[in-house]
Amino acid sequence: MSTLLEVMVPSRLGRPYRWLLASAWTSNIGDGIALAAGPLLVASQTSSAVLVALAALLQRLPWLLFGLWAGAFADRTDRRRVVMIGNVLRAIVVAVLCVAILTGTVSIGVVLVTMFLYGTAEVFVDTTAGTLLPSLVPRQHLSTGTHRLQAAYLTCNQLAGPPVGAFLFAIGAVFPFAAQVVCALLAVVLVSRISRHRVPDGAPGLFVPPSDRPATHVRRDISEGLRWLWGNPPVRMLAIVIMAFNVTWAAAWSVLVLWSRDHLGMSEVGFGLLTTAAAVGGFIGTGLFSRIERRFRLATIMRVCLLLEVLMHLGLALTTAGWVAITIMVGFGAYAFVWGTVSQTVRLRAVPQEFQGRVGSVYMIGVFGGMVVGQALGGVIAETWGLTAPFWFAFAGAGLTLALIWKALGQIAHADAAA
Prior knowledge:
Layout: H1 2-8, H2 15-45, H3 49-74, H4 79-103, H5 108-129, H6 133-136, H7 142-171, H8 174-192, H9 218-230, H10 233-253, H11 256-263, H12 268-295, H13 298-318, H14 322-350, H15 356-385, H16 389-405, H17 408-412, H18 415-418
Helix pairs in contact: 2-7, 2-8, 3-5, 3-9, 3-15, 4-5, 4-8, 7-8, 7-12, 7-14, 10-15, 10-16, 12-14, 13-14, 13-16
């Protein structure tokens, strides 16, 4: 057992990191359960496509409304406590939903309000949790720590959680959400254990704002963080790249279900296989990441991942066979995992501790903002030029973006030097 633990979470990462990883596994299981149970609950309350779409929007909207504020808040308070309080609030929101389900008073209005409140708490939790890793792990081990956290997200949120959520919902609508409450509260307990152990040599330790820090308005803190980001060209460019590639990716993915059904002739099961194939590819990327990192330069890894993204859009635009699409999705899952781990490691290394929250929040706004813009574009493009048109748009947009930033990726990969 101890050998298995050492392989999964090397002791060089420290005991505090093990508690952080355990909390990530727990909270991601809860979120994965909700990933399936949430839409099922919405569908049980309404048949309106507008309300179903609104439910998904209300979970992402808080990132655009409160993302910058959450980043500033993370940089001016005890980060560990923010994560704990945020998870408690998430548990309370879902517990109220459970009561509504049990008493028969649940309605689409209650569900939509729950989605928005839960999403708001999630913004503060996820933004602040993202700042804990560089506090607990030495800089030279950040890629390993990021790798393990990304694997936890893939395993629990994308693979294990959704089928469990669907199974629990089939038993009774309240059960998946009760399980989510338990997971959120357990995550609070696990995060509380972080400060009880000494961090490894070379790790800065949990960030706590200095007691003599002058009182400033949140808007000033946000402006200061944006100025730091704008004044660091590699970190700034990475944020722009992430947003641009999320626009092109979301444009294609917005019509994926219709494209698979009407263009490829796949059934509902076939569509499910596409998403499952991406998760399988992610597992392959998890297993290969350490070898890839040791063998290739970061700039090379980043260029290859983005080039594969361009080629994936081209392949999906051209194919008319379901098995080809599934094969491409396996590749997508593999390189997407590698790209996510590398890009996050580059940012964590480059950004000073006192700016981690604010800069990280800008990245998340870029991710979700890019997805919202891309989904809107994808629908319009598909309606005008057909279901393959969003994939051609993604191919052209991603290819042009990559051509423009090809040389800059060398600087981006070593953004910590510029910082």
